[in-house]
Design goal:
mainly beta; Immunoglobulin-like; elongated; 130 residues
C-alpha cells in the first residue's frame, strides 16, 4: 500500500514489507519477532530530510506501544526529488499477529516541516490469519 501526502511539492511514498523471524521467536513463551523493510521515495518536487519516526504497534490483544526516536537505523536520510532510501528494522510482540502504523517527520531544505504517514501494515506469524 502507498501512502503520500497531498501537496505535490512534499510527496513521500512509503512501502513496507514485513516478515516473521521464526529463528528469533519463541512462541512457547509468547515472544514473536518481526522484521520490516521500509522503502521511502521522494516523489515530490522538494528535497527533504527524515528527522524522526513515530510508530504505533498494536498486538493481537490490543496492547499498544508507541516508539518515537531520531531518524531510522541511526540515520537521517536526505532525499532529493526522485531519490529513495531503504532500511530494515524489527520489533517483537507477545502475540503472533498485530499491526504497525506511524509517520516520519520530515523537513525541507528551506526549513518547512511536514509528516509523511506510514500506512498500517500487518505483522503475522505463519498460519495465524485466515
Amino acid at each position: 500500500m502507498n501512502n503520500s501526502i497531498s501537496n505535490n511539492s512534499y510527496k513521500i511514498d512509503i512501502k513496507v514489507q514485513p516478515a516473521y523471524l521464526e529463528n528469533q521467536s519463541d512462541p512457547d513463551n509468547n515472544h514473536y519477532v518481526f522484521s520490516y523493510t521500509v522503502t521511502i521515495k521522494n516523489t515530490g518536487d522538494t528535497a527533504a530530510r527524515l528527522l524522526t519516526r513515530h510508530w504505533i504497534i498494536t498486538d493481537g490483544d490490543g496492547q499498544v506501544q508507541e516508539v518515537k526516536g531520531d531518524g531510522v537505523i541511526g540515520e537521517q536520510p536526505h532525499l532529493n526529488p526522485g531519490e529513495g532510501f531503504q532500511y530494515t528494522s524489527g520489533t517483537f510482540m507477545n502475540t503472533p499477529f498485530g499491526t504497525m502504523q506511524g509517520s516520519y517527520q520530515m523537513v525541507t531544505d528551506n526549513g518547512e516541516h511536514f509528516d509523511a504517514p506510514v500506512p498500517t501494515f500487518t505483522l503475522s506469524a505463519p498460519n495465524t490469519l485466515h
